[in-house]
Design a protein that fits this description.
Helices cover 21% and strands 33% of the residues. The chain has 208 residues and is α/β, with parallel strands linked by helices. The chain folds into two domains: 1-40; 42-205, Hexapeptide repeat proteins (UDP N-Acetylglucosamine Acyltransferase, domain 1, 3 Solenoid), CATH 2.160.10.10. It has an eight-stranded mixed sheet. A hairpin with a 2-residue loop joins strand 7 and strand 8 (85-86). The chain starts with a helix and ends with a strand.
């Protein structure tokens, strides 16, 4: 009985060791991918870190400042071409920006995220729509529809965007604003306020 217990302990130790080795390999692989990404970005500052599973498209159209971090499975996509169309996208992310896991930024026009912003888990920011709502597009399979934009997205400094928020095209969110979880931002939000809902509306002004 003692021998069986000892054998099991050794086996468990081996499994833990394999797990630790696997983690180190994953971290090393991610570090290589990050370094390759940094070299392809149009501009990147100091202290840049992205967790595993990230997806960047059009990196040479993306500028990122100092002290940037992004959680697992984040997507930042600057679409130069999509389907038969060509675009001239630009994404500018300021200093001290933190983006949580599973966030998605999609750009064919212009998206700006100011200094000190925090994006919660699963935030979606887009300056474009997939297809239009006229008869010609409605007759197309969704995957074949082109991308269209109604205007840029400007997120000013020190904005806090909560979990599961969608920020739609042609929107400006003012400095210091807070967007409540699960909101859909379809219109401009003024500075120093709390907004929430679908569509998001101001529910509180912040005294400064």
């Amino acid at each position: 009985m003692k021998k069986k217990i000892w054998d099991f302990g050794v086996m468990l130790g081996t499994k833990l060791s394999c797990f630790q080795v696997g983690s180190k390999v994953n971290n090393f692989t991610n570090a290589i991918k990050i370094n390759k990404l940094k070299n392809s970005l149009k501009e990147v500052g100091e202290n840049f870190y992205i967790d595993q599973g990230f997806n960047f498209i059009g990196a040479n159209n993306i500028r990122i400042g100092d002290n940037f971090s992004m959680g697992k499975f984040g997507k930042i996509q600057a679409w130069v071409t999509y389907g038969k169309s060509s675009y001239n996208p630009s994404i500018v992310i300021g200093n001290n920006v933190s983006i949580m896991e599973m966030c998605h930024i999609s750009c064919i026009n212009y998206i700006q995220i100011g200094d000190g912003c925090l994006l919660g888990t699963n935030v979606f920011i887009t300056d474009n729509y997939h297809g239009q709502t006229d008869k010609s597009d409605c007759n197309l399979p969704p995957i074949r529809k082109e991308l269209y934009t109604k205007g840029p997205v400007i997120i000013c400094e020190n904005v806090w965007i909560g979990r599961n928020v969608c920020v739609m095209p042609n929107v400006t969110i003012g400095e210091g604003a807070i967007i409540g979880a699960n909101s859909v931002v379809t219109h401009d939000i003024p500075a120093f306020c709390v907004a929430a809902g679908t569509p998001a509306r101001v529910i509180k002004s912040i005294k400064i």
